[in-house]
Every structure is written in structure tokens, then in C-alpha cells.
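In the previous lecture we treated proteins in isolation. Real proteins rarely work alone, and many bind small molecules. This record shows how such a complex is specified: first the sequence, then the SMILES for zinc ion.
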Amino acid sequence: MSWDARDESDLDPVVVRRCECGREFTPQFTNTVRCPACIHRYTAAEPVRAHLARLRASKSLCQVGREAGVRPATVRSIGSKLDRQFVSADIAERLLAVDCGVA
Ligand SMILES: [Zn+2]
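The predicted 3D structure, ligand included, written as C-alpha cells:
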């Protein structure tokens, strides 16, 4: 193997990087090591949506919102916009902390 060959492979453009959270992402800046979701403290919406579905069996949107300290409109948006992939980690934590009320 010649030095030239090695240098060439080193110059391969990095288009996809893996974040510490396991997500693959395309960095906007070469020194970015975390994905946009981690940088902005977003988290996957899916587990939150599943939890919301359980909550909604026994609680109204307003109740859930009040117990979580999240606006009911936000609660509804997370529960109904199925194409929404991320929610803010803060809101996710608050919603996940609300008890289902079922044993
Ligand atoms: Zn990440």
C-alpha cells in the first residue's frame, strides 16, 4: 500500500456520522459530533405518543396537560401529528411522568 492510497482514503468526505445516542446524521459542520436531536435536546416522539394513548384512556387532554404542566394544545399536537418524529426532551419528561391511573 502506498502512502498516496492511504491519503486518498483519509480524504473521503464524511457524509454520515453516528451520534453518541446511536442516531446517524449528516453533520452540517465538520466539527459536529452530536445529531441535531441531541444538540437541541429533542427526543423521539414515539414512546411519548404511546404513553399519551394510555393516558387518554382515562384522562382528558386538559387533565394530562395540567398534570404535566404542558399546554393542552401541545399535548394534542404530539398525540395527533403522527409524522412528528421529535419532541423537546423537557416536554417528553413531563408527559412521561404523568401517571396512567391504571394499576
Ligand atoms: Zn444524538
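Summary for your notes: Residues 19, 21, 23, 34-35, 37-38 surround zinc ion (CB under 6 Å). Residues 3-39 form one domain.
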